[in-house]
Amino acid sequence: MRDGPMNAERLLAHYEKIADAPDAIGGLRRFILDLAVRGKLVPPDASEEAVEGFRKPTDPAAPFGLPSNWKWIEIGDQLDLLNGMAFKPTDWSREGLRIVRIQNLNNPDAPFNFCNPEMARERSLIDNGSFLVSWSGTPGTSFGAFIWDRGPAVLNQHIFRCDFKTKAFVAAYLRLAINGRLDEMIAKAHGGVGLQHITKGKLEALLIPLPPLAEQRRIVAKVDELMALCDRLEAAQAGREAARDRVTAASLARLNTPDPETFHIDARFALKVLPTLTTRPDQIKTLRQTILNLAVRGKLVPQDSTDEPALELHTFDEPELTGRLGFEIPTSWRWVRVENVADARLGKMLDKAKNKGRPYPYLRNTNVHWFDIRLDDLKTIPLDDAEFEGYRLKDGDVLICEGGHGIGRTAVWRGGPENFIFQKALHRVRPGARLDPDFFAQCCFVYFDSGIMQTYFTGVGIPHFTGRALSKLVFPLPPLAEQRRIVAKVDALMALCDRLEVSLTETAATRRRLLDALLAEALAPAEDRELEAAE
User: Which H or E run contains 372?
Assistant: First the structure.
């Protein structure tokens, strides 16, 4: 007795819980194909007899059980596999006969190459209704069976034209049967990382389930019906995502370009709804960026009139500066240059021939990430006492990558178990009494994220950040007490983002496990489930 439909009902009963699981719709499509090729998708009809006349497969180990009136056959019993032509770029022309490559099978919008029709061999020609199998490429995107429906063409290599030897299969069902066994097809493939292929012999020996012809037609009709349902579910899912994204984007946009009269209302609304609207861990990145953006604009915590004012260094043309940097600052803040409030210098040049003295571990740009310094793959350099004092790191120093892949990345040194120095690939900014290092690091992130910091870079091809440019970098300076309140608020909100990110990841994993469990249960033979229930 076949029990797939009953299990499918259980799956659909839990669909709301798994709808936003990673690859939920893709999993549902694969589930439908699994049911189809296992004889569990449509009710059986005892009056339908098995197709006769095929030899027994040479492989005695059947992948799974089949209904009594089904049988396993090898693809080579049913199809004559004819490979496409090995076209060279010099064979291409701007018009003529279309050349079908694997990308043309997987993407109807992919452009065609053309060739002179006279050079196409007859065994590689195809037309509407031709049955094709792509046997090389990237697992998950390239392999599969197709029924061609776009007119006369010629096959490129890595695609078989499959000529039917018998009338045992309905073509539409055979496509489902082969695509339902792609995992095994890919498992038999070989080749390098990414690009793989399955040999003709292995593909001919692949076992395919063969139901009675009438049941094949019922299966195809049911699969078409369920795939249309998947299309609707996918469209609904995309609609939900788009609606959430629009509300999220609008909320964040109002915060990033604040209206003073409505800002507090907008902020309360955003902080209330964003955790609900955020359904993917990658969406947390935008929320983090917005928090930091508000922090350096003076919008994250209220100003306090009792705070000791920032430095009296307001010597810049405020309208020009505000226009270039894109935002205004509170009246108690000041525009300052790095050189006004900190000591900045470039790290130590490495020269093994000249460097003498005691070895010290040093940091490179690969150790500095945004807001994080990683003490892995450390190296040492010998320095005498005088040089060491000039390049040693102290708690609260801010390190900025000078160039290369990580240019601009900024983090605060929290001290370490040893005396560390820093290499020339890093700038060290040692804040003075009026600058909090964490607030300055937040400014650097916002400046880099918005493109402001890049205007201070120099160099053609490989940009870098000179010490002079860094010393002239202009940034907003709040009163010191407010800087510390901002840092504390950012830390609290980032901790909230961390918890939300973990929660989303755990929720996604839970949905994924539930989906996998329901699919596995739906595909389990009835006797296995009865045994589990008895235990």
Answer: strand 372-373
With beta carbons less than 8 A apart as the criterion, state whether 46 and 40 touch: no
How far is it, in rounded angstroms, from Cα 441 to Cα 412?
7
Regarding whether 328 and 193 lie in a shared domain, the answer is no
Region at 396 (left for phi over 0; alpha for psi -120 to 50; beta for the rest):
left
One domain for residues 84 and 206: yes
Q: SS3 for 416-429, per residue?
A: CCCCCEEECCEEEE
Locus of tokens 């003709």: 200
| 197 and 322 together in one domain | no
Q: Based on the number of CB atoms within 10 Å of its own CB, is 209 exposed (0-12), middle (13-18) or buried (19 or more)?
A: buried
Does residue 83 lie in a domain region? yes
Domain that holds residue 327: 318-478
Task: State which of 461, 478, 495 marks the end of a domain.
Answer: 478
Q: In what order do the strands lie in the sheet with 358-363?
A: 379-383, 358-363, 421-422
Taking the chain (535 residues) in consecutive chunks of 10 residues, what is each chunk's mean pLDDT? Answer: 46 60 76 86 80 60 82 90 92 92 90 93 95 81 88 94 93 92 74 71 89 93 88 80 70 60 60 60 76 84 82 55 65 89 86 75 90 89 83 92 88 84 91 94 92 83 84 91 92 83 73 66 50 45
CB 143 within 8 A of CB 91: no
| pLDDT score for 413 | 95
Would you give the DSSP letter of residue 249? H
Report the domain count for the chain: 2
Q: Of 177, 211, 245, which closes a domain? A: 211
Residue 393 lies in a domain: yes
Looking at the domain assignment, is residue 385 inside a domain?
yes
CATH number at residue 329: 3.90.220.20
- For residues 191 and 326, membership in a common domain is answered with no
Q: Is 454 found in the same domain as 333?
A: yes
Give one DSSP letter per residue of 471-488, joined into a string.
Answer: HH-EEEE--HHHHHHHHH
Q: Enumerate residues 6+ apart whose C-beta is below 8 A from 20.
A: 237, 279, 508, 511
DSSP H or E stretch at residue 159: strand 159-164
Phi, psi of 383 (to 5 degrees): -140, 145
- Residues 125 and 386: their CA atoms lie apart, in Å, by 80
Count of Cβ atoms closer than 10 Å to residue 454 Cβ: 13
d(CA 364, CA 380): 11
Rounded to whole angstroms, how far apart are CA atoms 478 and 18? 47
Beta strands in 245-341 (DSSP E): 334-337
pTM here is 0.58
* C-alpha to C-alpha distance for 473 and 443, rounded to whole angstroms: 11
Check if the beta carbon of residue 413 is closer than 8 Å to that of residue 399. Answer: yes
- Token digits of residue 236: 């609904």
**Is residue 525 a part of any domain in this protein?**
no
